[in-house]
């Protein structure tokens, strides 16, 4: 799906009430077999699938995120917490000025959750602009139904069967299954309340068993995630019907 909208085309879509979908990813280690951009690939894939279901319009993804917990592994390039909050805040303000009815952020990275939640709250307090942040709703249930490996625990799916299956489904050229290895970190007793870097918890950066991954499972997982997210977006848009006053000056 293209994000090459022209100015008049995107303006017309927003004016007609299409809801913009912003994939928010990260550039962080995902073991030896998956690309650093895994979270961006996954968030974009889910946003692409949601667009036709929810009358959405796909925005270009933010390809970096807050992932300092992965700094111990080579290649990871992290934004700071405040930068993620500021990028989201700036795009929210810009969409509000452009007359968008709301924004849905499809978040692909755990470390983005808190700064994106704050950016959404800021927007609501500033001018009532509705922002929904999706953190893969329905993921635990979908994996329980489709996955065949044991999850690492604490709701963590990192470079495991789930993430590897989804990347195999949408970008198979980016996966090297010959390098896929399983690792189950032994979590310290104060995890996850105390903060640990990923490199303290394991050697490979994998949380789970990616060797069970297949593209077919990835398709099924994406279908389940799309259905769960579409239900949430539907509820969200019913709560926030389009304001047709056309007043773009508020901010
Ligand atoms: Zn990931």
From TrEMBL:
Q: Does the keyword rRNA-binding apply?
A: no
State the Gene Ontology BP annotations.
Answer: riboflavin biosynthetic process
Name of one Pfam family that matches: Creatininase
Q: Which InterPro entries match?
A: Creatininase-like_sf, Creatininase/forma_Hydrolase
A molecular function annotated in GO for this UniProt entry is:
metal ion binding
* Protein keywords: Hydrolase, Metal-binding, Zinc
State its cofactor.
Zn(2+)
| Coiled coil segments of this chain | none
Q: Where are the transmembrane segments?
A: none
Q: Which family does it belong to?
A: Belongs to the creatininase superfamily.
Task: Please identify the protein, giving its name as recorded.
Answer: Creatininase family protein
Q: Which organism is it from?
A: Nakamurella alba
